[in-house]
Specification:
This protein is of the alpha/beta class and about 325 residues long. Helices cover about 40% and strands about 15% of the residues. About 30% of the residues are buried. The protein contains 12 helices and 9 strands.
Length: about 325
């Protein structure tokens, strides 16, 4: 949805509220008090009331908007801005667009929307042929600040500034004839000899084989063919997947180009997206930015990203209430 259509369809608060109510009416609502699934709408209170125990529930209850004092119009504008562009948008820019004085409120809104994107992608798994590798993202840690002057800052893989991320991407080899046909049609030259499907990225605490296996089992269907660089961290994947390892010794560029091209491409693009918002992100929130990148990448050919995101927001299970404030302080 472009800006002109958005203004036309949602010109005021009432239009946003009515549209959101239509989404809630189509949703199965469970009474948190008695478990009943039958509700009726009270126009005078603008709330749902349980037919059995008469428990009342607001429109925002049980959605991403729960506990939020922002208007429906504010949320809809945020949904539009975060779904209408391929790149991300900073909380400062969104604060200016919404004309809000409190940065913290808008920042929490953006993080909750990113969590909505992550919850939606958790419903799907990768299959067929999947590339898998570990990447490192530079982050900070507000709960345990790094003091460079004390000499405690490590270098390389074990650095406190590096957060480990498991990157997984569906990829299928493309024969020369198909690639040449695509190049002729688009006028572009394709250097990668594989086509990309869906992707997933997950923050992991370490590079142990058990950790890699556990995280992969959540995201990849059992029996799929997994392309790996042959590190020891992937040895336990053989119990669930058909492991295709390729280790060319010191010839890393050959492995990246031929065997694992897409995990490196999408990781690089994700780092660029984050760099367009912050110099560095806090380690605790890195997964949320990964969620946004994966959600948009997996739906890069969709024209209805805005309504899809709204449907996901209605079925969202609230996970954050005071977590943000506890972490960053008052």
């Amino acid at each position: 949805m472009n800006l002109v259509d958005f203004i036309k369809d949602f010109p005021d608060e009432e239009s946003c509220k009515l549209h959101f109510k239509g989404l809630r009416d189509a949703q199965v609502k469970i009474c948190p008090k008695c478990g009943c699934t039958e509700y009726y709408w009270k126009n005078d209170k603008e709330m749902y009331e349980c037919k059995r125990c008469h428990y009342r529930m607001s429109l925002k209850k049980g959605t991403v908007m729960e506990h939020s004092q922002l208007t429906f119009r504010d949320w809809y504008v945020a949904f539009h801005l975060m779904s209408s562009t391929k790149k991300s948008i900073s909380a400062c820019e969104l604060q200016r667009q919404l004309n809000k004085s409190c940065y913290r409120t808008v920042w929490e809104l953006t993080q909750k929307i990113r969590d909505v994107m992550g919850q939606r992608d958790e419903n799907y798994t990768l299959s067929n042929e999947v590339e898998i590798d570990e990447m490192f993202f530079e982050t900070t840690c507000l709960t345990a600040p790094i003091k460079k002057s004390s000499g405690r800052l490590k270098r390389g893989v074990g650095s406190q500034q590096q957060t480990k991320v498991l990157v997984m991407a569906e990829s299928v080899p493309v024969d020369d004839e198909t690639r040449e046909a695509k190049e002729k049609k688009s006028g572009k030259k394709y250097r990668v000899k594989k086509s990309i499907g869906h992707i997933k990225m997950s923050v992991i605490g370490d590079l142990k084989s058990e950790t890699i296996k556990e995280e992969a089992s959540k995201s990849i269907e059992e029996g799929s063919k997994v392309a790996s660089d042959g590190t020891n961290s992937h040895v336990k994947l053989t119990s669930k997947y058909e492991l295709d390892s390729k280790n060319e010794g010191n010839n890393v560029s050959e492995v990246v180009k031929e065997h694992l091209p897409w995990v490196h491409i999408v990781a690089g693009k994700c780092k660029k997206m984050i760099a367009g918002i912050h110099d560095q992100v806090e380690r605790f929130f890195l997964q949320l930015y990964l969620n946004e990148f994966c959600y948009k990448f997996n739906r890069r050919f969709f024209d209805d990203l805005f309504p899809r995101l709204l449907v996901a927001a209605v079925s969202y299970k609230p996970r954050f209430r005071h977590n943000f404030r506890k972490l960053v302080g008052n």
